[in-house]
């Protein structure tokens, strides 16, 4: 009888641990959560996009008009994310933006995955994109390279 109780307790603990892991793996994060409460209403909001060419490494800053910078930041504010464990990410762009703090990400535009450089390179997949990736792609398709910064 005592062995049965121990077995039941072990099963309950295992089910609880597995359920907790499932809930953590499927948690949805807002932009506020992954950026740790940024001030999206900051007066001096700026964004920079850098094209990364590999072999040999070359970093090229892309000129973005101020109105498009604000549009990208506003659309980023409304995104939701899930953590991503995909180790195969082909990033060819990095974007940085400043609000009340500075934030930096690598982005795989095709997969909709960002790597948060401010959070131990945590990877997130964008799950509810209304127009951020579309706007980002439009900017890089019409890119005007301004600074070569090796």
From TrEMBL:
Keywords: Membrane, Transmembrane, Transmembrane helix. The chain crosses the membrane at residues 6-24. This is DUF4825 domain-containing protein. It comes from Solibacillus merdavium.
